[in-house]
């Protein structure tokens, strides 16, 4: 973990060039991941990239964090996934899901093997409702409908804002554990309680799917969220 350098207010790099954090979720036809596993893998992948101490990646991450923290999720299977894995990045596994995250890139400089992957319409399901969650929890807004791909990006946003909100010692301990977290859709009561508590809230830019400024996700830590 790059201790302290992941905080936005500590960054010395401010880049006017807008960048994007690419994520790719593995979706095989015969064995797609569950929605919740994919969301949790994406959120953890973002955290691992944000706290990277790889010198080749650190400057790109800092420049990206000095601007909009935009994320784009694409999906891959078979040979597409193998090509995606060959590019510099890191893969996070969570239950049935595998998500690969890459260092941020300028909006118009996608590697060819990523640019041709599908970006819209990623839909995944949970065969069973996820159970109660404890510890770090990303809560999705109960009144905002999103595809799995969009929700993965929002979960990543919320986890990143959540990391920034934590004291250094708490963030360091969480990182040492591998950023365990849960992603759940909040009930109206859970959402209201989280927002009123001052938890960081994601307001989406509205490039896709949702109205600009929509509150899509929040982060609570520690938390105990029942399966409502």
Instruction: Please state the structural category.
Output: alpha+beta
Examine the secondary-structure arrangement and name the CATH architecture of the largest domain.
Answer: 3-Layer(aba) Sandwich
Number of domains: 2
Strand content: 15-25%
User: What is CATH's topology name of the largest domain?
Assistant: Bit1
* Dominant shape: globular
Mean of pLDDT: 92
Q: How many strand elements? A: 9
Instruction: Please work out how many helical segments DSSP would assign.
Output: 7
Tell me about the biggest sheet?
5 strands, mixed
Low-confidence stretches: none
Helix % is: 25-40%
Rg estimate, integer Å: 16 Å
Distance between the termini: 35 Å
Query: CATH first level of the largest domain: which class?
Result: Alpha Beta
Protein name: peptidyl-tRNA hydrolase
InterPro entries: Pep_tRNA_hydro_II_dom_sf (IPR023476), PTH2 (IPR002833)
Organism: Cryptosporangium phraense
Keywords: Hydrolase
Question: How are the secondary structure elements laid out?
Answer:
Blueprint: E1 19-26, H1 35-50, H2 55-65, E2 71-76, H3 78-86, E3 90-94, E4 97-101, E5 105-106, H4 112-115, E6 133-140, H5 148-165, H6 168-176, E7 182-185, H7 188-196, E8 201-203, E9 215-225
Parallel strand pairs: 1-2, 6-7
Antiparallel strand pairs: 1-4, 1-5, 3-4, 6-9, 8-9
